[in-house]
């Protein structure tokens, strides 16, 4: 802007004219023009108070808080005994986190005018932060004695109560403030945020969001109020809307690092990771590397890098931050989490242990220790740390979820569900709520006391949290409805690595015929490995989607023109169901990776076979069952695996049973059956190997369970978790017969056992998870011999086979060849059947489009929705 022309007059009145015009511009909502005119007034006469106050207000609105503070200090020098000027200077210093500067201003302002509620409130907060809570309480109580309904005093007393661990009292005070001043923006913001964070039910959280929206309507030009409203939008799952609101805030305050930091976090929620990183780096430039704001932003950048899988970069960044800000607890916690994800468990444990000792009142270091113990398969320690964290924060959803996952792995699925269910009810963050809900649902696959119908009903009850079920009229599927053209098929997973899913997927990716299928992979794999590279080489298109939100991932799939989206995770960790629930492709399938229904109407089909899901047994899930002719698995053994070892029963003259399944599958019913088997065969042994046996506590507990069920202590041989695949498979050389688990059968373990010459006895259950063994045994032609109808039959067959050593030895000599010649290893046949199934459902879709018009993507869900749990889903933690 040019210097404004003299308004037809020179002299002492010109500065006053500029100041008056600056005040008008400020009132009109144009802080940039106001600041320009106020500077002109100051240039003419820097001894007048109004231009300095106007400059400070304009800079505050523009987010230039340091300049605002400088202008206010000059104003104080001009009018040291004006209470309003002292108040403004003190409040700005308080906002900038400078209590030593703020306190004398606030104390003088209060001495000049004791009725200033905002001043009294800020001073009380400074006293509380200085470990003078009684003085803070007395100050606020004195103010309320003068003005019982002062909203500022009530707001800040509420902040003190919340800091003292009494959120209910805080809400009561804020409700009182709102009743006294219904349109008070600060009250609306504080109560809205308090309800979003601490409210006990969804309705209260929804009210909190409405209060924040009202505040933003009343103060559309205040960036900090827009930031609070954006927080509500993020909690509602409306990340794109939050980005738009925060974009306005940044336009108003382009130099405010806090506004840009908040915009970055919203972009991260929206899956705009690249833009989020740029915003954080810009915010850091604005804030400077030091100071509270810069430290927070730097910590957030380290967290972002970790979430994007850039672990080494994250670790280096956070270590550098802690050298300059060693007391930054958030940064230290983020570093611990990055070290944990990178597998540096010892370094992470040292850090979290130090933090727990330095901050005994803070639950997060204890949670970090719990997660570390879980990652290291020390489940007893994980539970102890988790319970310690919960004692410090009983309603922290992250702690509840972590503890639930650990208990599920230890074989307590009912307690796991109750904890994860509670986490879902309390969690205010949409993406986390979906993760916790998936964990709650997954625990039901391990429940021996639940029917297939109950498991399906529980999954269906959770659907509203993932999907809206409503078409988006603005997003039709534009795929060409040509039934004969080449299909674009996308596979979605976070497990494109050395993982069970990869062993059954790699043959499919390598076997797809180029003229039939164009292959896309959407990988959220955090730690890629050699298997990742192999899978990537077999795809036409590989998309790295770590860090993308559901909408961004769905938009990517739409841009790729996917015809069929195939989910390979269900409700397991890292799943991409929230994106698939938006129906980014005309057809969505669930295949391997989860042993049952997703519960989502957005998933059209579940790929299976006639043994895993018999046609005459009604499927209770939400999907239609698409049955392949032979088996729904294609197993690709690794090259150069160890040869089949001689049958140990030939030298021992007694049978050796084995189970290498996850211990969570070893239910009390399984233990009882194994106890009966071992009691009937005193010379028999049982090798048990699982990841949980890295924990000596669980080894001892499992042996005790088996002994209590009838086994001899010497019959049970726990095996330590093997370091690599060859070592793992070599242990099969010491076993004659595998004992499958129920109601959740093994899959990879059964295939590995048979490849290594060890037949597996299974039991056909009442749901998909309990019929995978039937599917695999049928495929190799051994179902008549090795598939039991019920527990008594399972026990009887195991005892009979345990006495028929020649039969076991004979199977061992031929089983690898039998397995290799079966449909389980026939890549060409399997892929032909799979592509025919894809072609069949694609043809059906084309016919529907011809008859009824295009289908559509779906609108996002209401992420404040709660599952409508059936009565059978007992809860409470």
What does it look like?
- Among the domains are: 240-286, no CATH class; 477-634 and 831-851, Rossmann fold (3-Layer(aba) Sandwich), CATH 3.40.50.11380; 649-825, Rossmann fold (3-Layer(aba) Sandwich), CATH 3.40.50.2000.
- 58% of the residues lie in helices and 8% in strands.
- The strands form three sheets. A seven-stranded parallel beta sheet has the order 4-3-2-5-6-7-8, with helices on one face. Strands 11-10-9-12-13-14 form a six-stranded parallel beta sheet, sandwiched between helices. Strands 1-15 form a two-stranded antiparallel ribbon.
- The longest helix is centred in the C-terminal third of the chain and has 26 residues, at 827-852.
- Strand 3, helix 29 and strand 4 (541-544) form a beta-alpha-beta unit.
- It starts with 12 loop residues before the first helix and ends in a 19-residue tail after the last strand.
- It is elongated and about 110 Å long.
- Helix 15 packs parallel to helix 17 and helix 23 (397-409) runs parallel beside helix 25.
- The protein has 41 helices and 15 strands.
- With 877 residues, the protein is α/β, with parallel strands linked by helices.
């Amino acid at each position: 802007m040019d210097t404004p022309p003299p308004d037809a007059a020179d002299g002492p009145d010109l500065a006053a004219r500029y100041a008056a015009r600056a005040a008008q511009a400020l009132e009109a909502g144009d802080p940039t023009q106001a600041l320009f005119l106020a500077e002109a007034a100051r240039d003419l006469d820097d001894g007048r108070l109004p231009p300095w106050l106007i400059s400070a207000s304009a800079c505050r609105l523009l987010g230039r808080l340091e300049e605002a503070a400088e202008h206010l200090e000059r104003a104080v020098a001009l009018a040291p005994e004006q209470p309003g000027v002292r108040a403004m200077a003190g409040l700005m210093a308080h906002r900038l986190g400078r209590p030593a500067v703020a306190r004398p201003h606030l104390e003088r302002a209060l001495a000049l005018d004791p009725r200033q509620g905002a001043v009294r409130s800020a001073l009380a907060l400074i006293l509380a932060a200085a470990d003078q809570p009684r003085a803070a309480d007395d100050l606020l109580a004195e103010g309320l004695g003068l003005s019982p309904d002062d909203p500022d005093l009530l707001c800040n007393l509420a902040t003190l109560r919340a800091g003292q661990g009494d959120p209910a009292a805080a809400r009561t005070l804020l409700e009182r403030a709102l009743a006294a001043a219904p349109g008070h923006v600060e009250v609306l913001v504080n109560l809205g945020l308090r309800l979003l964070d601490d409210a006990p039910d969804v309705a209260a959280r929804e009210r909190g969001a409405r209060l924040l929206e009202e505040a933003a309507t009343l103060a559309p030009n205040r960036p900090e109020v827009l930031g609070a409203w954006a927080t509500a939008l993020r909690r509602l799952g409306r990340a794109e809307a939050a980005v738009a609101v925060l974009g306005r805030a940044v336009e108003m305050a382009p130099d405010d690092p806090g506004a840009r930091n908040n915009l970055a976090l919203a972009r991260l929620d929206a899956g705009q990771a690249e833009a989020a990183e740029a915003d954080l780096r810009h915010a850091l430039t604005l804030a400077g590397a030091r100071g509270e704001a810069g430290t927070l932003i730097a910590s957030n950048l380290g967290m972002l890098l970790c979430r994007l899988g850039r672990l080494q970069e994250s670790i280096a960044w956070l270590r550098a931050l802690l050298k300059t800000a060693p007391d930054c607890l958030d940064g230290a916690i983020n570093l611990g989490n990055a070290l944990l994800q990178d597998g540096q468990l010892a370094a992470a444990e040292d850090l979290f242990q130090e933090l727990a000792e330095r901050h005994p009142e803070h639950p997060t270091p204890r949670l970090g220790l719990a997660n570390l113990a879980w990652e290291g398969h020390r489940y007893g320690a994980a539970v102890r740390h988790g319970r310690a964290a919960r004692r410090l924060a009983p309603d922290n959803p992250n702690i509840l979820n972590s503890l639930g996952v650990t208990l599920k792995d230890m074989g307590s699925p009912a307690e796991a569900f109750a904890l994860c269910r509670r986490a879902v009810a309390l969690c205010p963050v949409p993406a986390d709520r979906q993760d916790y809900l998936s964990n709650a649902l997954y625990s039901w696959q391990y429940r021996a006391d639940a029917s297939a119908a109950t498991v399906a009903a529980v999954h269906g009850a959770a659907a509203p949290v993932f999907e809206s079920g409503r078409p988006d009229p603005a997003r039709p599927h534009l795929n060409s409805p040509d039934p004969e053209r080449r299909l674009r098929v996308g596979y979605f997973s976070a497990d494109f690595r050395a993982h069970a899913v990869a062993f059954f997927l790699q043959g499919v990716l390598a076997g797809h015929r180029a003229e039939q299928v164009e292959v896309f992979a959407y990988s959220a794999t955090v730690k890629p490995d050699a298997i990742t590279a192999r899978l990537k080489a077999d795809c036409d298109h590989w998309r790295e989607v770590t860090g993308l939100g559901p909408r961004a991932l769905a938009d990517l799939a739409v841009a790729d023109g996917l015809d069929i989206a195939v989910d390979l995770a269900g409700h397991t960790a890292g799943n991409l169901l929230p994106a698939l629930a938006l129906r980014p492709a005309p057809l969505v399938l669930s295949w391997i990776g989860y042993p049952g229904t997703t519960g989502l109407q957005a998933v059209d089909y579940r790929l299976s076979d006639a043994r895993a899901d018999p046609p005459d047994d009604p499927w209770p899930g939400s999907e239609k069952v698409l049955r392949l002719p032979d088996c729904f698995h294609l197993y690709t053994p690794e090259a150069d695996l160890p040869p089949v070892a001689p049958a140990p029963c030939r030298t021992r003259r007694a049978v050796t049973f084995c189970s290498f399944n996850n211990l969570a599958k070893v239910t009390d019913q399984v233990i009882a059956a194994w106890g009966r088997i071992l009691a009937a065969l005193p010379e028999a042994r049982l090798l048990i190997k699982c990841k949980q046996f890295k924990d000596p506590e669980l080894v001892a507990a499992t042996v005790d369970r088996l002994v209590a069920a009838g086994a001899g202590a010497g019959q049970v041989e726990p095996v330590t978790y093997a370091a690599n695949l060859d070592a793992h498979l070599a242990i099969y050389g010491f076993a004659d017969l595998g004992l499958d688990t129920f109601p959740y059968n093994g899959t990879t373990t059964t295939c590995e056992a048979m490849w290594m010459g060890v037949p597996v006895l299974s039991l056909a259950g009442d749901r998909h998870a309990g019929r995978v063994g039937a599917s695999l045994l049928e495929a190799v032609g051994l179902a008549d011999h090795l598939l039991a109808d019920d527990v008594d039959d399972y026990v009887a067959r195991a005892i009979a086979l345990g006495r028929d050593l020649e039969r076991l030895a004979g199977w061992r000599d031929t089983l690898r060849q039998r397995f290799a010649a079966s449909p389980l290893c026939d890549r060409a046949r399997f892929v032909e059947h799979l592509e025919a199934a894809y072609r069949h459902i694609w043809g059906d879709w084309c016919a529907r489009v011809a008859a009824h018009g295009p289908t559509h993507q779906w609108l996002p869900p209401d992420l404040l929705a709660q599952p409508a749990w059936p009565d059978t889903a007992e809860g409470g933690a």
